[in-house]
Amino acid sequence: MKYASEKDFQEYVKTHPDRCFVTYKQDVFDMTNFLEDHPGGDKFIQDQNGKDITQLFHGPEPHSHSKSAFRMMGQYKIGELTYYDSSTDAGSNSSDTYPKIDDNYIYYNGFKMDRNQGLIPQTLGLNKQQYLEFVHQPLHLDNVMLFKWKFFEFFTRNKWWYIPLVWVPISFAVLAFGIVTNFGSEDTNRFDKYIYVESPSFNVLGPLLGFLWGMFMWTFIEYMLHRYLFHMSETLLNFKAFRYIHFMVHGIHHIIPMDPDRLVFPPPLAAVLAIGIYPMFVAGYGGNFARVSFAGGLFMYILYDYFHWWLHHGKGGLNYFKELKRYHNLHHYFDEDAGYGITSKLWDYVFFTVIKEGKKKAE
């Protein structure tokens, strides 16, 4: 669609009051379908309806946009301003960037992904360079098929409320197990006398503090999993099997970070991790304290998964949470090699992985 004058464009905007249009240089975009999924909230875009966002897009307020955002916007282009003078523009326009998307394919530089087939099996056909290009360019798609087989596809989609439904009963069952069970002298902890309900020294603060310690320990586990498993070393990604595992556990989230059904960890995969982490608590702490603190870790995991969903789709809240939402969006769209903390920045500070906005990495 071509617009010969600013008046023509504004008339078009007025005749479509239910849509939201913006311009970037000479390109016109209909951002309506992206409003709810915009990482900064829908109001920021709605306030620019009918306006040019070129300066805002590259300016410091509310934040500078990455090339990933630039590429993502390209799929909403609907026309051009023919009266725009592009002679002074530097760099490429959004229409010149990859990936390009149509109803059947996602086109990259040198390869393409079939939207009518499962993306997961197709990753096996990608080499390392293609895979990294694939997972490091976030997209906004209304529907993404991971498996063509409906049975497997069903298990890739998880509502946020699945997590408390499955894990709250398990968390409190482990807590009760840790309070009422005598694990004997070979499996004990110095604090068990305050936790074991039949101990003469039992105090309700014992299991409470053990539970809270487990919640705190989850923030460390969360960081380590995100940094070293979900963002595994590129050396490991030389191997096809590790690329496949990476895509299954986290790569897909970085491709479609705003997909509401793929923001929380599927319970079967979470169970595998829990089965692996539980022996570490037993070996590290032992006795009642190990079980009670593990229950706290499970409970914090529930909060973590819901909070991760909120970081992508929630609105409002305290300034602390708004800042974490902004911080997490920087991880997705600015620097995926930093900012691994989800529920807090604590361990990013400890391990020097805080995102440095003034030092944007080269793309």
Number of strand segments? 8
Strand content: 5-15%
Q: Strand-and-helix sequence, N→C?
A: EHEEHEHHEEEEHHHHHHHHHHH
Q: What value does the Rg take, in angstroms?
A: 24 Å
**Biggest beta sheet attributes:** 5 strands, mixed
SS element count, helices: 15
Structural class: alpha/beta
Q: Give the termini distance in whole angstroms.
A: 31 Å
Which features characterize this protein?
363 residues; elongated; Flavocytochrome B2, Chain A, domain 1; 7% strand; alpha/beta; three-stranded antiparallel β-sheet; 15 helices; five-stranded mixed β-sheet
Task: Outline the structure in words.
With 363 residues, the chain is of the alpha/beta class. It has three domains: 94 residues, Cytochrome b5-like heme/steroid binding domain (Flavocytochrome B2, Chain A, domain 1, Roll), CATH 3.10.120.10; 52 residues, no CATH class; 193 residues, no CATH class. Helix content is 48%, strand content 7%. The protein is built from 15 helices and eight strands. It has a five-stranded mixed sheet with strand order 1-5-3-2-4. Strands 6-7-8 form a three-stranded antiparallel sheet, with no helix packed on it. The protein is elongated, with a radius of gyration of 24 Å.
